[in-house]
Design brief:
By secondary structure, the chain is an alpha/beta fold. The chain is built from eight helices and 13 strands. The longest helix has 14 residues. It is globular, with a radius of gyration of 19 Å. 43% of the residues are buried.
């Protein structure tokens, strides 16, 4: 996600917590997801700590007057030297992350992943969309920040959510609003302690088929769905969590495609075994209400919402005003 050209990332996030220190990073890998989004891996010389859902200040040496703001899409474990780390507690002040020792020959080099949308009017994003050969190996500086994080009691606005956690977590994403939720879901799915994982998880992800995907009036092919940001990764996570070998849980992922579908009678592609369902159209109130579950369980439910301003405003208003979820909805807006 990139900050809009009308308002700089530092201006929009001035009140957000940040770590005080800068870290060196190197553009180590670039992969295009579709014609509009590419994944960029930032290699790290040492392990750093962050919470799932946070973003980076990105400082590019050739753009000294422009600080980029991009959400981390990878889980904290990939920026650590430990193969399966538990979440390390961080203070609310988000003090400087403690640097671990440098990677040994036996450990995988730590890294952070970003999903960058092609935005020519945003200088940092435009730089990250230069031809691969021009930026691979280039060094940048990064700083971790943000309060839209997992676990919920560490998030801004999550003061009413106790450290005992929640039995149900609902994640609602619009477009590239999936970015911080990708980090959160990757982290939750890799947790080794079942007590730290909500028993019930719902993901409602609304997006369009990328322009690179062939238009069709029928169900989109698996090839087209692979062009949807993080769909293959999310499908794998939910399929794995619903495998009979996993601890009994209830994980459901609904992908809402607003294009090319324009009718509520559009075909549905259901995969009950994996817990993944394809819907035509946008997320509706009844979809949100169903995801919330029984009214008597709302005090043990937490909702994360991330997407464009209009979408997030509508969803949050419905959840708080009509469903009584005030104090249990965490939101991140990106324009």
């Amino acid at each position: 996600m990139s900050a809009p050209p009308s308002t700089s990332h530092p201006e929009r996030t001035v009140s957000q917590p940040r770590q005080s220190g800068l870290h060196n990073a190197t553009i180590s890998h670039i992969r295009s997801i579709n014609s509009r989004i590419r994944l960029i891996r930032l290699g790290l010389p040492y392990a750093i700590r962050f919470l799932p859902g946070q973003w980076l200040d990105l400082h590019i040496p050739s753009l000294p007057t422009h600080t980029g703001g991009f959400t981390i899409t990878s889980p904290p474990s990939l920026a650590s030297l430990q193969p399966f780390p538990t979440l390390s507690p961080l203070s609310r002040s988000f003090s400087p992350s403690s640097a671990a020792s440098k990677p040994s020959q036996a450990s995988k080099p730590p890294y952070i992943e970003l999903a960058i949308q092609d935005s020519p009017s945003n200088p940092p994003a435009a730089w990250l969309w230069k031809p691969k050969r021009e930026i691979l190996g280039e060094e940048v500086k990064i700083r971790v920040g943000g309060s839209f994080v997992w676990p919920p009691w560490k998030a801004k606005g999550g003061d009413k959510i106790g450290e005992g956690g929640s039995k149900r977590a609902v994640f609602v994403a619009g477009g590239v609003g999936i970015n911080p939720l990708m980090s959160i879901l990757s982290h939750i799915s890799s947790c080794q302690e079942s007590s730290s994982i909500p028993k019930t998880i719902r993901l409602l992800y609304s997006t369009r088929l990328p322009s690179s995907a062939p238009p069709t009036t029928e169900s989109p092919s698996s090839c087209a769905l692979n062009d949807v940001l993080f769909f293959p990764r999310l499908h794998r996570i939910f399929s794995d969590r619903n495998h009979p070998s996993q601890p009994r849980g209830d994980w459901i992922f609904e992908l809402f495609l607003s294009s090319p579908f324009h009718s509520t009678s559009a075909p549905e592609l259901d995969d009950a075994n994996s817990g993944v369902f394809l819907r035509g159209g946008r997320i509706k109130k009844q979809d949100l209400r169903k995801a919330l579950g029984p009214a008597e369980d709302r005090e043990e439910t937490v909702v994360y919402v991330c997407g464009p301003q209009l979408m997030t405003d509508e969803v949050v208003a419905f959840l708080e005003e009509e469903e009584g979820m005030e104090g249990r909805v965490l939101v991140e807006k990106w324009w």
